[in-house]
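Hi P.,

Sorry for the delay on this. The queue was packed all week, but I finally got your sequence through. Input first:
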Amino acid sequence: MAARAVWKGQIRLSLVSIPVEIYSATKSGASVSFRQIHRESGKRIHYDKVVEGIGPIDKDEIVKGYEIGEGEYVLLTDEEIDDVKLETKKTLELVQFVETTSIPPLYFDKPYYVVPQDDLAEDAFRVVRDALRKAHKTGLGQLTMRGKEYLVALRPCGRGLLMETLRYEDEVRQTDAIFDDISEEESGDELLEVAEALIEKKTAPFDASAFKNHYVAALKELIAKKRKSGGKAKVTIDEDEDHRPKTSGDNVVDLMSTLKKSLEKDGGGKAKSGAKSSSKSSSSKGGTRKTSGSKQKKSA
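Then the structure:
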């Protein structure tokens, strides 16, 4: 099934306007979703729109209401909402450029692919894409999709552009109340040395295909077994006990011992030699990364 554009409009950079189409970059087909079913009849459960004291109502009787007080609303129709004039409904104007790495990850929300609408738009599209790539910059702007105005970031992605919706500042919870109880005391040098060596041993280029959703796979296996047998079935996900930290009788973890054992388990030998290896030449690091990458794929 061909992908459908979720937005059509233009990117504007100063006096230059480029007709574009935007497509969702993610898909939900990989997940497992469930319907609510009546156990006795096996039929799907539906929900009616019900007004207290009146009962079920038709869809065309429904309008949107903004609550201004308890039980008091300002009523708006879909037509009235659609008539709100916003420049960002059809135009994504790039109003600022920032370093690509300067946006904190927690602001990113959802990714979309951006392509030119036609051959006439492609030349200008490629110029903007290549200029962003050469400058290592990300463009910021706002656009309206599905009745909501989004702050967005635009940057090169292969032959096209990647647009990511961003959370507004008031949507991001500040860390003060969450992190305040964590001590500011720094970790000891010896512990850091072993931890850094372990991180170095497990360092490899990012490869999303090396990771699989084991829970979804187990659910699909369970569904297939029940469908085949028509009876009861059970599927469990094996957990590697060796990855769990060993605790003493008083429930205190020997962190140094556990880190050293982890380093040895991953081929690091003694902790000291493992730590020293992390500062060796880049050529030896390259060999280590390749080994780690292959291990990751086998475990996935």
